[in-house]
Amino acid sequence: MSDAELVGIVLVSHSAEVAASVAELAKGLVGGGNAPPIAPAGGTEGGGLGTSAELIAAAAASVDRGAGVAVLADLGSAVLTVKALLAEGDELPDGTRLVDAPFVEGAVAAVVTAATGADLPAVEAAAAEAYTYRKV
Amino acid sequence: MLDADFFRRWMTATAASVDREAERLTALDSPIGDADHGSNLQRGFTAVTATLEKEAPDTPGAVLTLAGRVLISTVGGASGPLYGTLLRRTGKALGDAAEVSEERFAAALREGVDAVMALGGAAPGDKTMIDSLVPALDALGDGFAAARAAAEEGAVATTPLQARKGRASYLGERSIGHQDPGATSASLLVAGLVEAAGE
């Protein structure tokens, strides 16, 4: 399956470092497969802690291959900003969804699943299922 | 009737009061939030007035949808998408009329507040901006000054509440005894209507 059909993943965090590192982590766990397009959107445009609508929109556009874009967000304003952008209708590529998932575990599940060529609902389900992995 | 200039004045008046009260908003946000509410809104509303001046939207709906869009893009905290959604949804509800009645504006603002509640999941009593906006809406039929009084009263009334949304909710009972910064800034927005009307 060609890269052109993989679901794109956007990781939105209050921190640029968190978003970039989780993206690296998830990519590293794909193994021998073909990693899907992943873009971090962390922090504000000025490099501080917070959320940038511009960075989110740019990240989503950069990973859109026509198969949909799964967006994972960490907290508060990151979640609200993605939801507000989705509600506007024209700010994010068609087929962009906010995935309800834990940030790190969900990102790994989403990226590994997307690497298999799975479609957006399957990527979303895999990421959401990460909520059920109990640790104790 | 309310024209585009009225809504421009509303945004300018709100920007000025946010500017004036930024330190107080941030101080309110320090014990129960992350101490950025004043500076975030100041950045947002400064950008709103600059953009309104540059793009000169010529209907009430266009003024508010543009202002909302700018807030979503520039605030950088949760108040950006929340206030942005409030203004955008209100603006969209106003359509492209050149002038709107106070009744039509009140109905549109209610759509905006409903959209904020849907976005953030907050209900009255959760210690949020909703606790200022809903009483203001309910009083709006009696005029802007009545709405301002209701909004200010609503903001003060958040003090004994326990936060159930956002970062302050992590504090549980320790959030009690602090006036909510979001409800306070929302009362500044409502007060801006009185100034815009020149009352």
From TrEMBL, chain A:
GO terms for cellular component: membrane. Keywords: Transferase. One of its GO terms (molecular function) is phosphoenolpyruvate-glycerone phosphotransferase activity. InterPro entries: DhaM (IPR039643), PTS_EIIA_man-typ (IPR004701), PTS_EIIA_man-typ_sf (IPR036662). The keyword Iron does not apply. One of its GO terms (biological process) is phosphoenolpyruvate-dependent sugar phosphotransferase system. Residues 6-136 form the PTS EIIA type-4 domain. This is PTS fructose transporter subunit IIA. It comes from Streptomyces resistomycificus.
Automatic annotation (TrEMBL), chain B:
SUPFAM superfamilies: DhaL-like (SSF101473). The keyword Transferase applies. It comes from the Bacteria. GO terms for cellular component: cytosol. Pfam families: Dak2. One of its GO terms (molecular function) is glycerone kinase activity. Residues 5-195 form the DhaL domain. Keywords: Kinase, Transferase. GO terms for biological process: glycerol catabolic process. This is Dihydroxyacetone kinase. It comes from Streptomyces resistomycificus.
